Amino acid sequence: MSQKIFIKTFGCQMNEYDSNRxxxxxxxxxxxxxxxxxxANCYLLNTCHIRNKAKEKVYHxxxxxxxxxKSKKKPLVIIAGCVAQAENQEMIRxxxxxxxxxxxxxxxxxxxxxxxxxxxxxxxxxxxxDAISKFDYLSKIKxxxxxxxxxxxxxxxxxxxxxxxVVPFTRGPEYSRPFSQIIDEAxxxxxxxxxxxxxxxxxxxxxxxxxxxxxxxxxxIEKISGIKRIRYSTxxxxxxxxxxxxxxxxxxxxxxxxxxxxxxxxxxxxxLMNRKHSIDRYLEIFYNLKEINSNIEFSSDFIIGYPGxxxxxxxxxxxxxxRVKFINSYSFIFSPRPGTVAAGLELIDKKxxxxxxxxxxxxLFENQIxxxxxxxxxxxxxxxxxxxxxxxxxxxxxxxxxxxxxxxKKNDIGKIIPVKIRRSNRSTLFGExxxxxxxxxx
Length: 442
Known about the structure:
The protein has about 450 residues and is α/β, with parallel strands linked by helices.
C-alpha cells in the first residue's frame, strides 16, 4: 500500500531543487506526494540555516505537527537540509517527535534510512558530506519536475568562508558535478516540459569540473533545442571570470539579469566579512558586462549593520546602489550564526540598523519602480509558466525575471509571448498580447 509524504521547503532555490529530488527518490519505495499535510504518513521539513532563528522555526513547526496529529497516528517525521546538518543528533535529543535527521549531502541514503527506521524503529541522523555519491545516485533517477522553469543544481558547497556564513559548514566544500551528468539531467528536464533552466550552486560560477567551466556548460546547454532560456544563481564576484563575462557576447539563450551579491559597498566591511573582492573589482565586472550588452541588469544581496559598519560604510553601500541601479535585490540586517567568525562580534545598535535597512530598501524599491515604469508601453518577451490562481489570466516572467500577468490561455504555457506592458507596480508588470510580429521587442 502506498504511503503519502508531505514535504515543506524553507529557504533557497537549491532547497526547492533538493525537495524535488527527495520526492523522485522516495517514490522508489512507494511514497506518493500529497499537498494535504493532515493525510501524510511521512512529514518532511527541508530546512534552511541562512536566516535568523532558523532552528527555532523548525521546533515551532514540529509543535504544529504534533497538534495536527494529536488524535491521529503519528507520521514519520524527518528533518532535512541545512539545519539538520548543523544540529544533527541534538535535534533528536531535544525533540523526541523527530524520527530522522538527514543532511543535504546524504539524500541518496534517504530510502535506506527510512526503511531501516520502519524495520527497527531506531532514530538516526545521517549527515556525512558525500556530494559525489549523492549526485552519482541521483543521476540514475530521472528528474521529472515538469515545470516550465526548472532548477538544476550543478555545484554545491563553498570554500570562501565569509565570516558571516554557515554554508561551508552545512553544505561542505565546493563540489562541481560531472559535465555529462548535468547535460543528461538538463535533457531529462526538457523531456518533462522545461523551457528554462536555472543553474544552481552556492557559488555557481565557481563551477569547474576537469577544466570545464560554467561558460562551457551554458554554451552546451544552449544546444538543446527545447531550451529557450538559461539563468544561473548564485554567483560570487571572485569567480566572475573573463570567460564567463565573454559568454554574454555569444550566447543567444542566456538571460540579461545577473544576480551578483556584493553584500556591502564598503571595502572596509568587505574585508571584515572576508569577501575576497573589492568594490573596484565589482564595478569592473559591471562595466565590462554593460559594454558587452547595455541591456544587462544586476540584482544583489546586502547585509546591513554588519559589525564595524559606520556611517561612511553605510553611505558607500547606498551610493553603490544608486550607481549600479540594481533592479531586484535582497537586504537584511546582520544576524550572527553560531560557529562563524562573526558570531562573537559586537552588534550595532538595532535602531541604527533598522533605520539604515529602511533607507537601503527604499532606494532598492525606487530602483525597481523606475525600471518597471520604464517598461510601460514597451513589448517584452514573456515565458508563460502557468495560469493565475483564479485561472482567468496567465503568469510569466520577462527576461529580467519580473513577473508579468496578462490575458492568455492554458495552451500559452511554455511559450514565449510578446506582451505590451500597460501598467506596473514595484514587483509586477501587467500587459496584453501583441500579435504583430513586426513590432520591436524591448
